[in-house]
Every structure is written in structure tokens, then in C-alpha cells.
């Protein structure tokens, strides 16, 4: 298959580069800017010399450019890793957040509808949160975002469904990786440099190692390819089109997450203490409980999901 990855220089996009290495499929990695030198060097360290570090330019807000790229390269699948991901800044940049998180996924859906291809789109646990849930959220549960980021991501999901292309929308949570900026890397630095640290314990969720999510996407693509090959029809309606949840297994607070980061990094000098969210005022209220129920993705695709501390330990060993 010819597969287009958008936002390829972000956390998930870079993990897709690692997963794509050695694949029989042809991957096209795109973004609005070139890969940073830091990311290229991490990619080589983690995945050797044959990993693709090149980036073609593609702005997913530009429908004409998407059409041209899809047509020129006979794209059959788009994996959309691009988004406006700054949760706090989205509150004061609503127009841009809406353009990237709602309108751009619609553009990609239109292109895949016309090409009779598949759109794999990534959404977020922040589509939930206003309702004070205390059991893991299922795919059918109504979205109740607390802020602009979650609202625009929910609109993106709705726009894709309205276009009606074959799609797999994966809601994930608390993403971290070796690439870019993320909570894990921030806490590695802070616990190494500060004598004391307070971290909120009143928000529960599950961290997701972006590499595990990239591997799950690869499993889904394999399934999709198998269905294409066994289909007698030229127009395929992928039987597994729908919304799925994916994070690592287990539940923790940001405080627990930090304690494990500190432990796996072997840093003993920082005194990490739990605190309430109210001690860190922010422009948007975060969900207090956004654990995702992953039963559907496990049953549908037989994906294996590691426990969150096992994946965290692995990522930190690579970072070290
Ligand atoms: N990060 C999390 O904790 C988290 C949690 C739940 C769900 N998610 C979702 O998971 C997905 C992947 O997140 P991530 O953390 O890997 O994101 P990321 O690291 O912020 O990467 C997003 C990439 O998209 C690029 N981009 C921005 N505007 C673009 C445009 N117009 N056209 C093409 N590319 C563009 C960004 O470039 P610039 O850096 O130059 O802007 C960046 O390289 C997103 O859909 C996100 O909403 C993330």
C-alpha cells in the first residue's frame, strides 16, 4: 500500500518512521517543516541507518495540496499524526485549533473518500472530562470536552464521520516518546535538577508510549490490507470503520507517573510531592478522570497492549 503520514516530525509521526522500517508498504512522511537535527539523531540511534528521516512538505489545511499529493503518489491510506496539540494555547488560538483539529481532518477525509482509501486519525481523551466519570470511558460515551482543544478534536471526529470515508479514529491519552517535548522528558529534567517538585494527583488517566500506538496502527493497517486483498469489490467498505480507544494498560495520576519516571531514571535527590490541580492554575480545566476503555480495539484487532510502567521503563532506557 502507499501510505501518507502527516505530522511526521511530531512524537507519533517519528515513531511511525521506526515502525515503517523494513515494511513492504511504501511510506511518504510529510509535515510543515523539516525534522529537527535532534529527532534525526534519535531516529538513527533507535532504528539504525535505514530509517527514513526525510520529510516532504504537506500542509493539511491545504485541500488542493492534499489532493495533488494523494493523486500523484496513488495514496491508499493516510495516517494523520498532525494536530494543534498545545492544550493551554488553544484557549486563546481557537481559530487555528479549529482549522488544524477540525477542518484539516475533514480535508483528509474528503481526499480518502475520493480515492476510496482509509483515514487513520488520532483523537484524544480530552473529548471527555466535563462529566465527572469514574469508570473507564467507552467509545460510545458522549463527548463532554472541558476546553477548546478537546472541543476542536471532537469536531474533527464528527467531520470525518460526516464525510463518510473509511476511517479508524483512535482516541489516545498522555502521549510521550523519545521525540519532541512531552511530560516524561520534562519530568526527567526537573527531577534531575530540582530539590523539590509538586505534581498533581487529582487527575487520573493512562500514559501512552507513542511507539506502542504506532505498532497498534501497523496492526490495523495489516488487517485493512488483508480485507482489501480478500474483497471481490473495487469499492471497499472497511468492515472495521469506527472509533477506538488506545492507551497503555493501567491507571495512574500525573504524580504517580512522575514517581515512576524518577525511579526508572535512578534519580533519588528530588523530593516529589502530590498536590491539587488548583495549585497550578491553567487556562483550561483538565479532565479529572479520562481513563480509556480499550476492550474494543483489543477484541477487534487483537492488539497487545503493554502495561504503562513496562513501556515507560523501556522509553527511559532509550532516553538514557
Ligand atoms: N501529546 C499528547 O499528549 C496527546 C494526547 C492525546 C492525543 N494526542 C493526539 O495524538 C496525535 C499526535 O500527537 P503528537 O503529540 O505526536 O503531536 P505533535 O508532537 O505536536 O506533532 C504534530 C505535528 O504536526 C505538525 N503540524 C502542525 N501543523 C501542521 C499542518 N498544518 N500540516 C501538517 N502538519 C502540521 C507539527 O508541526 P509543528 O511542530 O511545526 O507545529 C508537528 O510536527 C494528535 O492528533 C494529538 O491530538 C496527543
Write up this protein.
- With 320 residues, this protein is an alpha/beta fold.
- The protein is 42% helix and 17% strand.
- The protein has helices spanning 11-20, 37-47, 63-72, 87-90, 94-115, 148-163, 183-193, 210-230, 254-265, 295-301, 308-319, and strands spanning 2-6, 26-31, 56-57, 77-80, 118-124, 166-172, 175-176, 196-200, 204-205, 208-209, 242-245, 252-253, 271-275.
- The strands form four sheets. Strands 3-2-1-4-5-6-11 form a seven-stranded parallel β-sheet, sandwiched between helices.
- Strand 1, helix 1 and strand 2 (26-31) form a beta-alpha-beta unit.
- The protein is globular and about 60 Å long.
- The two termini are 36 Å apart.
- NADP nicotinamide-adenine-dinucleotide phosphate binds at residues 6-7, 9-12, 31-33, 59-61, 81-83, 85, 100, 122, 124, 153, 172-175, 180.
Amino acid at each position: 500500500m502507499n501510505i501518507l503520514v502527516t505530522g511526521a516530525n511530531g512524537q507519533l509521526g517519528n515513531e511511525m518512521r521506526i515502525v515503517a522500517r523494513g515494511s513492504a508498504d511504501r511510506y511518504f512522511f510529510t509535515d510543515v517543516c523539516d525534522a529537527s537535527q535532534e529527532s534525526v539523531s534519535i531516529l538513527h540511534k533507535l532504528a539504525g541507518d535505514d530509517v527514513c528521516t526525510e520529510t516532504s512538505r504537506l500542509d493539511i489545511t491545504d485541500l488542493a495540496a492534499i489532493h495533488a499529493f494523494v493523486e500523484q503518489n496513488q495514496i491508499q491510506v493516510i495516517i494523520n499524526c498532525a494536530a494543534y496539540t498545545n492544550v493551554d494555547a488553544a484557549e486563546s488560538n481557537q481559530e487555528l485549533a479549529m482549522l488544524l483539529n477540525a477542518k484539516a481532518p475533514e480535508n483528509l477525509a474528503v481526499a480518502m473518500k475520493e480515492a476510496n482509501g482509509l483515514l487513520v486519525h488520532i483523537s484524544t481523551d480530552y473529548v471527555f472530562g466535563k462529566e465527572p466519570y469514574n469508570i473507564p470511558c467507552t467509545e460510545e460515551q458522549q463527548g463532554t470536552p472541558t476546553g477548546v482543544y478537546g472541543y476542536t478534536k471532537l469536531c474533527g471526529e464528527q467531520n470525518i464521520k460526516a464525510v463518510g470515508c473509511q476511517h479508524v479514529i483512535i482516541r489516545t491519552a498522555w502521549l510521550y516518546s523519545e521525540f519532541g517535548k512531552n511530560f516524561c522528558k520534562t519530568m526527567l529534567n526537573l527531577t534531575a535538577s530540582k530539590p523539590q517538585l509538586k505534581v498533581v494527583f487529582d487527575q487520573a488517566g493512562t500514559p501512552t508510549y507513542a511507539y506502542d500506538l504506532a505498532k497498534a496502527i501497523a496492526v490495523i493497517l495489516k488487517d485493512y490490507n488483508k480485507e482489501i486483498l480478500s474483497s471481490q469489490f473495487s469499492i471497499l467498505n472497511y468492515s472495521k470503520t469506527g472509533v477506538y480507544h488506545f492507551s497503555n494498560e493501567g491507571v495512574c495520576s500525573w504524580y504517580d507517573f512522575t514517581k515512576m519516571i524518577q525511579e526508572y531514571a535512578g534519580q533519588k535527590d528530588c523530593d516529589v510531592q502530590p498536590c491539587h490541580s488548583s495549585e497550578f492554575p491553567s487556562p483550561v480545566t483538565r479532565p479529572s478522570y479520562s481513563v480509556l476503555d480499550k476492550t474494543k480495539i483489543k477484541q477487534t484487532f487483537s492488539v497487545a497492549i503493554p502495561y504503562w510502567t513496562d513501556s515507560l521503563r523501556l522509553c527511559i532506557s532509550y532516553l538514557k
